[in-house]
């Protein structure tokens, strides 16, 4: 039976007959739903012919954790990537993309845990340390960086210099080049026009640098098994002597550049004014109290390094060149101490040349075989420490190269002041490049650098299986990187010419 739809009055009409009206229904203001991009399907697939059904769900375990907890379960995998700025160094093996190095850019980026641009590179010989250093310096030239090699003990960078059209300066016996570590540098420019306050400020910088140098040179000498001490009285004497030699003590408007032999002669034949200023009762007492100081400085005048750092600078450095290098390979026969003293002198001289660097004059300062300088004792370590601390202010990237982290501990005996300062040097370099090391070095990687077992295995295992492999530690982040060299760079970075010729 067909049911007819009954017609009748609705509620609204009924109320209207009695003079009442329902309120108007507001219009629907809801926004229409966005069209679905994906059509949901059942867990076992769509029920359509030839579409297939999954017989069972995959047995996948699901874990929920925070971003701080994830690196504990999967270390070296959850590390955030770095921005693609700076030198493209190679391949990030964990991310699968390119790895870029930009130390100063990392310092300026608050999201990256780097507070200084200094770099320490460690690695067993033949694992690609020099190749990484040369690739970094070469590629950063595209971003306005110039390179200064402050002492090349083995002529590692000679090929790179010649490829860029630069002739390295040779420091050694039989060569005319001289370096005066007591040179004023740019700070002496326009001294006559400086205000009293500015002249005093510059003088404090210059004399402070010289005191650091002399302290390091004196402390590098030995008395038996012990280093020559450099106490407060020695500092007063040296500072007063430098004031007299430069004319600063007499109020000269133009300072006179002095040398280490002139300093030594004044201490050996002191004037009455110098004796009185240093509060000695007589010239004899002055000579007796400063005997060790004079003998230590005399080694640069008449010792193994005589004729190298005892006269005014004879070289003219073109600071606009892409690279400059000071070769020390001729000093290798004199021993590690002689090379270390030469590095100390060059570092002081190089620091003086950079004290008034123009804004935007970016420089990479490479310190190869840095352990030779650190072995000269606590004062030499302090000099090295001062350079690293100034890098953030000057905008320079200090790139120190050594074989292994324990090389820094050779600065002194266990528990000594030199060793303590050397350990702190690692904290002044937020960027560490760890090339391949032997298994025996694994323990010190944890003790000195805080590397866990997985990172240790990468350095002592994976990194030893090929050149250019390294673990980059950027702050507290770690990256597994393979440095990739162009064939032209390979020719420059190759350092086994002697072995090839012998074979």
Characterization of this structure:
Helix 7 crosses helix 8. This protein is α/β, with parallel strands linked by helices and 503 residues long. An eleven-stranded mixed sheet has the order 2-1-13-12-11-3-10-9-4-8-5. Strand 6 and strand 7 (226-227) form a beta hairpin. Helix content is 37%, strand content 13%. The chain is elongated, with a radius of gyration of 34 Å. The chain has a domain at 81-147 and 363-502: Rossmann fold (3-Layer(aba) Sandwich), CATH 3.40.50.300.
Terminal CA distance: 110 Å
Beta-strand segment tally: 13
Q: What class, by secondary structure content?
A: alpha/beta
Q: Which topology of the domain at 81-147 and 363-502 does CATH recognise? A: Rossmann fold
Radius of gyration: 34 Å
Main sheet, how many strands, which sense, barrel?
A: 11 strands, mixed
Multimerization state: single chain
The assigned CATH architecture of the domain at 81-147 and 363-502 is 3-Layer(aba) Sandwich
Share of residues in strands = 5-15%
């Amino acid at each position: 039976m067909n049911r007819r739809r009954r017609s009748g009055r609705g509620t609204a009409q009924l109320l209207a007959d009695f003079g009442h009206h329902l309120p108007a229904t507001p219009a629907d203001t809801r926004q229409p739903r966005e069209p679905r991009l994906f059509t949901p399907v059942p867990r076992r697939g769509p029920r359509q012919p030839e579409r297939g059904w999954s017989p069972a769900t995959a047995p996948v375990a699901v874990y929920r954790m925070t971003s701080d907890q994830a690196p504990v379960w999967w270390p070296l995998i959850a590390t955030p990537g770095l921005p693609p700025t700076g030198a493209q160094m190679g391949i990030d093996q964990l991310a699968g993309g390119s790895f870029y190095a930009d130390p100063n850019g990392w310092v300026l980026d608050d999201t990256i845990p780097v507070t200084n641009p200094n770099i320490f590179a460690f690695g067993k010989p033949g694992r690609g340390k020099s190749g990484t250093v040369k690739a970094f310096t070469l590629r950063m030239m595209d971003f306005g960086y110039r390179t200064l090699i402050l002492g090349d003990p083995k002529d590692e960078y000679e090929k790179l210099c010649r490829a860029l059209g630069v002739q390295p300066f040779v420091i050694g016996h039989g060569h005319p080049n001289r370096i005066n570590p007591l040179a004023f540098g740019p700070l002496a420019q326009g001294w006559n026009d400086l205000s009293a306050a500015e002249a005093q400020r510059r003088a404090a910088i210059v004399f402070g640098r010289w005191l650091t140098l002399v302290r390091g040179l004196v402390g590098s000498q030995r008395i038996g098994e012990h280093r020559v001490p450099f106490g407060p009285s020695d500092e007063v004497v040296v500072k007063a002597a430098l004031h007299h030699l430069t004319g600063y003590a007499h109020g000269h408007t133009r300072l006179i550049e002095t040398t280490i032999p002139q300093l030594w002669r004044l201490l050996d034949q002191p004037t009455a004014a110098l004796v009185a200023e240093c509060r000695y009762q007589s010239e004899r007492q002055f000579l007796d109290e400063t005997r060790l100081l004079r003998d230590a400085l005399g080694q640069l005048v008449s010792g193994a390094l005589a004729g190298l750092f005892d006269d005014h600078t004879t070289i003219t450095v073109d600071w606009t060149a892409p690279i400059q290098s000071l070769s020390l390979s001729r000093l290798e026969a004199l021993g590690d101490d002689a090379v270390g003293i030469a590095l100390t002198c060059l570092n002081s001289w190089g620091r003086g040349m950079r004290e008034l660097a123009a804004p935007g004059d970016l420089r990479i300062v490479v310190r190869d075989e840095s352990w030779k300088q650190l072995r000269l004792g606590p004062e030499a370590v302090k000099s090295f420490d001062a350079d690293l601390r100034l890098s953030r202010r000057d905008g320079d990237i200090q790139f120190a190269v050594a074989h292994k982290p324990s090389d820094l501990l050779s600065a002194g005996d266990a528990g000594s002041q030199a060793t303590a300062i050397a350990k702190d040097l690692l904290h002044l370099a937020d960027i560490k490049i760890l090339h391949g090391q032997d298994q025996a070095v694994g323990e010190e990687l944890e003790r000195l650098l805080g590397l866990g077992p997985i990172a240790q295995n990468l350095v002592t295992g994976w990194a030893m299986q090929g050149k250019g492999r390294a673990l980059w530690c950027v702050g507290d982040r770690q990256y597994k990187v393979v440095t990739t060299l162009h064939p032209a760079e390979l020719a420059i970075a190759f350092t086994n010419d002697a072995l090839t010729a012998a074979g």
